[in-house]
């Protein structure tokens, strides 16, 4: 005889989050687990095919694959927000197109991406002048700089590791990120932004802020904060951004 049972909302209540992660990304999930795990916010992941080398052409290809990856997020969950986890990809594809791709299977759910999240974080922190660190090759970095400037932000300092291979970006030492952030923080900026979801920065944010006495955000910290904000949740995280 079948055992009787009751049902409830499960883990996928209204505060659940969706996250579309690049197949080459090794950093986002470990960093964001420290934000959403302690707050007991359920996060459902899907992977998106991505190439080993970051170029405008490989980034643009993600747009074609994004609807299918979004559709792999569970349909029975009431998502509070869904994030597409690629800073440079969001720059090339565009905020509206990213949202449209996700909405093909999750209509009406708030959608964000690292670039939209970074701009929201800068506005929340009152920052207009940005010290900007990337790991990217020149043409990818230039596209991101242009997008930030088109949205009213001034790039007052810039540095790049000029590395196009995702596997290498994920292995750039945190001390190298800290050194670059500190150097940028000495300039005429309100805030330092370390770009790329595959660049490890979570563990240096608070140390860097203490040294330069300015806010420091990364692609992952901004995305985590914005996802939680859109879903109406307060979560712990590194740096001044999460104190807002």
TrEMBL record:
InterPro entries the UniProt entry points to: Iso_Racemase_Enz_sf, MaiA/AMDase
Pfam families named among the record's database cross-references: Amdase (PF17645)
Gene3D superfamilies, alphabetized: 3.40.50.12500
Family annotation (PANTHER family): BLR3294 PROTEIN (PTHR40267)
The protein's name in its UniProt record: Asp/Glu racemase
Species whose genome carries this gene: Neptunicoccus cionae
Species classification: Bacteria, Pseudomonadati, Pseudomonadota, Alphaproteobacteria, Rhodobacterales
């Amino acid at each position: 005889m079948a055992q009787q049972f009751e049902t409830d909302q499960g883990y996928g209540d209204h505060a659940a989050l969706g996250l579309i992660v690049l197949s080459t990304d090794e950093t986002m999930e470990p960093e964001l687990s420290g934000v959403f795990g302690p707050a007991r916010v359920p996060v459902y992941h899907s992977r998106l095919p991505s190439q080993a080398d970051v170029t405008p052409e490989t980034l643009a290809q993600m747009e074609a694959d994004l609807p299918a990856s979004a559709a792999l997020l569970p349909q029975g969950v009431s998502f509070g927000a869904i994030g597409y986890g690629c800073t440079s990809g969001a720059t090339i594809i565009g905020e509206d197109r990213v949202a449209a791709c996700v909405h093909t299977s999750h209509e009406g759910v708030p959608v964000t991406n690292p670039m939209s999240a970074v701009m929201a974080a800068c506005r929340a922190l009152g920052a207009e002048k940005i010290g900007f660190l990337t790991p990217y090759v020149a043409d990818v970095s230039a596209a991101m700089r242009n997008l930030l400037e088109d949205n009213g932000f001034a790039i007052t300092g810039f540095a790049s590791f000029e590395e196009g291979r995702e596997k290498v970006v994920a292995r750039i030492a945190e001390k190298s990120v800290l050194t670059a952030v500190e150097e940028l923080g000495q300039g005429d900026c309100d805030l330092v932004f370390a770009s790329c979801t595959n660049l490890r920065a979570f563990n240096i944010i608070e140390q860097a802020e203490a040294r330069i006495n300015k806010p420091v955000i990364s692609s992952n910290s901004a995305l985590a904060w914005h996802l939680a904000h859109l879903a109406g949740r307060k979560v712990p995280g590194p740096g001044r951004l999460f104190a807002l």
